[in-house]
Amino acid sequence: PLVFQRRFLAARQLRSFPWPELERHLRTAAGPALLLDILHKTVLHPLCVKYPPATKYRRCFLTELIKKHESTAAEPLDELYDTLASLLNEEESTLCYKNYLLPTGEAITLSESTAIISGGTTGLVTWDAALHLAAWAVENPG
Description:
By secondary structure, the protein is mainly α. It contains seven helices and two strands, in the order H-H-H-H-H-H-E-E-H.
């Protein structure tokens, strides 16, 4: 769940998530509890609630979680579907966030606008160096 949490909060590409490993774990009796744990460490995490990634990203992630759950033919998990329903009713915003969890346990949040056009991009590309810069800033206050 922690790998999912870090990648989700940082809005990493969904194909970078360890989906095959999750599918193996979902076939055990602990599968539904694992999915709910991932849900609470990602989409329902307090940091995500306060500083959410793009609505479309959260919808796609949750849809993928639901697909993985449904592939096991297990009983539906109402909390997954309820969360997706609330996201489907949420309007897209031009502001989204990437949250990086530092080794110290603190978080760095970067705000990005989907409306900014800069150098031919949408402004949704965050430098990999931003995480290192944020870590340095936390270690070197003032």
